[in-house]
UniProtKB/TrEMBL annotation:
CDD domains, per the entry: Ntn_CGH (cd01902)
Similarity comment: family membership: Belongs to the peptidase C59 family.
Protein name: Penicillin acylase
Domain Choloylglycine hydrolase/NAAA C-terminal: 23-315
GO molecular function, one term: hydrolase activity
SUPFAM superfamilies found in the cross-reference section: N-terminal nucleophile aminohydrolases (Ntn hydrolases)
Domain of life according to the entry: Eukaryota
Pfam families given in the database record: CBAH
Alphabetic keyword roster: Hydrolase, Signal
Organism whose genome encodes this protein: Cyphellophora attinorum
Coiled coil: none
Family annotation (InterPro entries): CBAH/NAAA_C, Ntn_hydrolases_N, Peptidase_C59
C-alpha cells in the first residue's frame, strides 16, 4: 500500500529499502516475580499480511533450501507470527523460548557449500522454536566439533525487489539472549543476559561500540531519529533505567512502553525520508505465563494468545491458524485462543541458491 504511493525506479527503491527496513527488540527482566518479557516492533514498508499459527510438537520440517536441506521434527509446540504466510518472523514456544527475526542490511550468508545442510531464512527462527527450551541449549548446538556451524542459511526476496537479509535474536524465561548474525559468510554469536537489545545495521559488534558512546551520556542526551543505531541507544537506555515492575501487568506495560517509544509512526515513504518505514505491529511475549500479545499499529487493537489454553502438546498434532487479513478487527481484541481454526502448516519460502 505504501509502496504504491511512490513512483521510483527499481534501483532507487532498492537502495532506499536497504537502509529503511527496521525493527527493534528488547528483553525486560525487571519484574519482581522474576518473569522475563520480550518486546519487538515490526517496521516494514508494506503490510506483512501476517497470520498467527500455532504449531504442535511432532511436526516434520524441511529446511526448504533445495539440495541437502536440513530435516527435523518439532519437539515443542509454538505460537508464531508469519510474514505473508511464507516465513516465521516472530514467536514463542511452549517452554518460553522466544525468537525474533529482524532486518540486517549488512548480513551476508556466504556461498552454498553442498556438504553442509541448509535451511531457508524463512524457517530459521522456527528451527530454534521447534527444538530448544532455552537459549543455552540452542547456543550449545550451533557448531560442530570443528567449530563449523551445523547449517547454512539461504535467502531469497520475500517480496519482489526487497532483498531479504535478517538476523535472529533468541531469548528465554531466564532472560538469557542469543544474537545470531551472518557476517561475511560467518556465523557471529553474542550470548548473554547483557545482549538485551537488538535493532538493525550495522553489525552487532559495531552497534555495541556506538552504544558505549551514548551509554555514558544517556541521562542527558540521546539520539532521536529512527536510524537503527539511534533506536539501539535509546532502547538500551530505557531498559537500563526501567523500574522494577511489582506485578505482571506492570511488567507487560513497561515492556510495551519501551517498544512503543522506539516505534515509527505512519508516514509515507518518499525520496526525502528514505530512512523511514512505519511500525506495523508489535509483539510482547511473557515467557513465564506463556502468553503472546499482538498489537497492530494499523488496526488499532491489541489481543493475546495463551499458549497454555491452546494446550499444544495435546492438540492431536493439528496446526491451528488465526487469520488477520480480511478479518473484522473489532473482534481481534482480548483472548484469541478460542478463535484459532485447524489449518495446514503454511509452506515456507524456499531458497535453494
Ligand atoms: C497482501 O494482502 C493484500 C490484500 O489481501 C493483497 O492485495 C496484497 O497483494 C498482499 N501482499 C503480498 C505481498 O502478498
Ligand atoms: C564445506 O563444508 C564441509 C563440512 O562442514 C567442510 O569440511 C568444508 O571445508 C567446507 N568447504 C568449504 C569450501 O568451505
Ligand atoms: C547436492 O549435494 C551433493 C553433496 O551432498 C553434491 O555432491 C551435489 O553436487 C549437489 N547437487 C546439486 C545439484 O547442487
Ligand atoms: C543515570 O541516572 C541514574 C539515576 O539517577 C543513575 O543511577 C545512573 O548511574 C546514571 N548513569 C550515568 C551513566 O551517569
Ligand atoms: C489430552 O486431552 C484429553 C482430552 O481432553 C485428556 O483426556 C488427556 O488426559 C490429555 N492428555 C494430556 C497428556 O494432557
Ligand atoms: C465487526 O464486528 C462487530 C462486533 O461483532 C460488529 O458489530 C460489526 O458489525 C462488524 N463489522 C462488519 C463490517 O462486519
Amino acid at each position: 500500500m505504501l509502496v504504491q504511493n511512490i513512483r521510483l525506479t527499481g534501483l532507487l527503491l532498492s537502495s532506499i529499502i536497504a537502509s529503511a527496513l527496521a525493527c527493534s527488540r528488547v528483553t525486560y527482566t525487571g519484574a519482581k516475580d522474576g518473569r522475563s518479557l520480550v518486546g519487538r516492533s515490526m517496521d516494514w514498508l508494506t503490510p506483512t499480511n501476517s497470520s498467527i499459527y500455532a504449531f504442535p510438537p511432532g511436526l516434520k520440517r524441511d529446511g526448504a533450501a533445495g539440495n541437502n536441506s536440513l530435516q527435523w521434527t518439532s519437539k515443542y509446540g509454538s505460537v508464531i507470527t508469519t510474514a505473508y504466510d511464507l516465513s516465521t518472523c516472530d514467536g514463542m514456544n511452549e517452554r518460553g523460548l522466544v525468537a525474533n527475526l529482524l532486518y540486517l542490511a549488512d548480513a551476508e550468508y556466504g556461498s552454498r557449500n553442498h556438504s553442509m545442510p541448509a535451511m531457508s531464512l524463512a524457517i530459521w527462527p522456527q528451527y530454534f522454536l521447534d527444538q530448544y527450551a532455552t537459549v543455552a541449549e540452542a547456543a550449545k548446538d550451533l557448531f560442530d566439533s570443528n567449530g563449523d556451524p551445523k547449517f547454512q542459511v539461504r535467502t531469497k526476496d520475500l517480496i519482489p525487489g526487497v532483498s531479504t537479509v535478517m538476523h535472529v535474536a533468541l531469548s528465554d524465561a531466564s532472560g538469557d539472549n542469543l544474537i545470531l548474525e551472518w557476517i561475511n559468510g560467518k556465523l557471529v554469536v553474542h550470548h548473554g543476559t547483557q545482549y538485551n537489545v537488538m535493532t538493525n545495521e550495522p553489525s552487532y559488534d559495531q552497534q555495541l561500540a556506538i552504544n558505549e558512546y551514548w551509554s555514558v551520556i544517556g541521562n542527558y542526551s540521546l539520539p532521536g531519529t529512527d536510524r537503527p543505531a539511534d533506536r539501539f541507544a535509546r532502547l538500551s537506555h530505557y531498559v537500563e533505567m526501567a523500574p522494577d515492575a511489582p506485578d505482571w501487568v506492570s511488567a507487560l506495560a513497561t515492556t510495551a512502553g519501551m517498544i512503543r517509544a522506539v516505534s515509527v509512526p505512519m508516514e509515507p515513504i518518499n525520496v526525502n525520508t528514505p530512512n523511514i518505514t512505519p511500525t506495523l505491529w508489535r509483539t510482547f511475549a511473557d515467557t513465564k505465563d506463556l502468553v503472546y500479545y499482538y498489537e497492530s499499529a494499523s488496526d488499532g487493537m491489541y489481543f493475546y494468545v495463551d499458549l497454555k489454553e491452546l494446550n499444544l502438546g495435546n492438540s492431536s498434532g493439528h496446526t491451528l491458524q488465526l487469520p488477520m487479513v480480511g478479518v473484522n478487527w473489532t473482534e481481534r481484541v482480548g483472548d484469541m485462543s478460542g478463535l484459532f481454526r485447524q489449518a495446514e502448516p503454511f509452506k515456507f519460502m524456499s531458497a535453494d541458491n
